[in-house]
Design goal:
The chain has one domain: Histidine kinase-like ATPase, C-terminal domain (Heat Shock Protein 90, 2-Layer Sandwich), CATH 3.30.565. Helices cover 31% and strands 23% of the residues. The protein has a five-stranded antiparallel β-sheet with strand order 1-2-3-5-4, with helices on one face. The radius of gyration is 16 Å and the shape is globular. It starts with 10 loop residues before the first helix and ends with a strand.
C-alpha cells in the first residue's frame, strides 16, 4: 500500500480533520517535508516498523530544534497508540488504520483513525509502577511523552490525537 499525502486523502477524511488539500507528489516517494502527510496501514504488529519509519522521516524533515530527540519521543507515542489500536480496537484481528501527521512549526500532531471497538477511558485505573507487568503501559507512556492526548468516538470511528510542542 503506497504512502499518501493529504492530496490523496478522500474528501471525507480531509473534512474529518479540517485540513486543506496539498499539492500532488510522486507516487514513488512522498514529499514528507510538507506540513502534513498521511499513511494507511493494516493495524497489525507487522505494520509497526513501517509506521515508525514514516513518523521518523516526517519529524526529521520538519527541521525542528533537537529533531532526533523529538523524533524518538513522537515515534514512540504514535507507536504505542497504534499498537493499542491493533490489540484492543481490533483485538488482534487486523483492520485499517489511518495516520495523519501535521507540523505547524510549533506543534507536532498525529491523528490515528480506526473503525474498531470503542474505548472507554473511565475503565482505566492508575498504573502500578512498583509491580512488573507485561502489558498496560501503553497509554501511560503516551501521556508521559505527549503534551496533549485526545480521544473521541464518532460515526463508528475512533480518533486519537497526540501532540508534542516543539520549535523549528
Amino acid at each position: 500500500m503506497p504512502v499518501m499525502t493529504l492530496r490523496s486523502l478522500a474528501a471525507p477524511a480531509a473534512r474529518l480533520f479540517g485540513l486543506e488539500r496539498r499539492p500532488r507528489w510522486s507516487e514513488k516517494e512522498p514529499d514528507i517535508r510538507r506540513t502534513s502527510a498521511a499513511l494507511w496501514i493494516d493495524a497489525t504488529h507487522a505494520s509497526m516498523a513501517r509506521l515508525g519509519a514514516f513518523v521518523r522521516r516526517f519529524v526529521l524533515a520538519g527541521n525542528a530544534a533537537d529533531a532526533e530527540a523529538l523524533a524518538d519521543r513522537f515515534e514512540l507515542a504514535v507507536h504505542e497508540l497504534a499498537v493499542n489500536v491493533a490489540d484492543h480496537a481490533y483485538r488482534g484481528a487486523g483492520g485499517s488504520l489511518t495516520v495523519v501527521l501535521e507540523w505547524d512549526g510549533t506543534e507536532l500532531r498525529a491523528h490515528l483513525v480506526d473503525e474498531g471497538r470503542g474505548f472507554d477511558p473511565d475503565v482505566l485505573g492508575p498504573v502500578d509502577l512498583t509491580q512488573p507487568h507485561e502489558h498496560g503501559y501503553g497509554l501511560y507512556l503516551v501521556n508521559a511523552l505527549a503534551d496533549r492526548v485526545d480521544y473521541r468516538r464518532a460515526n463508528n470511528r475512533n480518533t486519537w490525537t497526540v501532540a508534542i510542542f516543539a520549535s523549528a
